[in-house]
């Protein structure tokens, strides 16, 4: 006895895995940025006696685009 069930078409996912990895990297940077804020030489919500002026250049580099990146990948 033969089955007359038509084969279902293959459904392709519209998911972009590169965007998933960009989202993971953006949230990783978010975590590292906020850890860096504790040790930065300026005042923040959480302060410590140790400050590292070396954090100024990388944090200044991240500041202009970090929120835009988070909004773009979280939608």
Automatic annotation (TrEMBL):
Tell whether Transmembrane is among the UniProt keywords: yes
Q: Superkingdom, according to UniProt?
A: Bacteria
What is the protein named? Acyltransferase
Q: Which UniProt keywords apply?
A: Membrane, Transmembrane, Transmembrane helix
Which InterPro entries does UniProt cross-reference here? Glucan_succinyl_AcylTrfase (IPR050623)
Species of origin reads Sphingomonas spermidinifaciens
Which residue ranges run through the membrane? 21-43
């Amino acid at each position: 006895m033969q089955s007359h069930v038509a084969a279902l078409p293959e459904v392709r996912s519209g998911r972009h895995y590169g965007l998933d990895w960009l989202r993971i990297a953006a949230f990783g940077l978010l975590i590292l940025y906020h850890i860096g804020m504790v040790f930065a030489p300026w005042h923040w919500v959480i302060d410590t006696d140790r400050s590292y002026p070396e954090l100024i250049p990388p944090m200044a580099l991240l500041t202009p685009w970090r929120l835009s990146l988070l909004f773009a990948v979280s939608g």
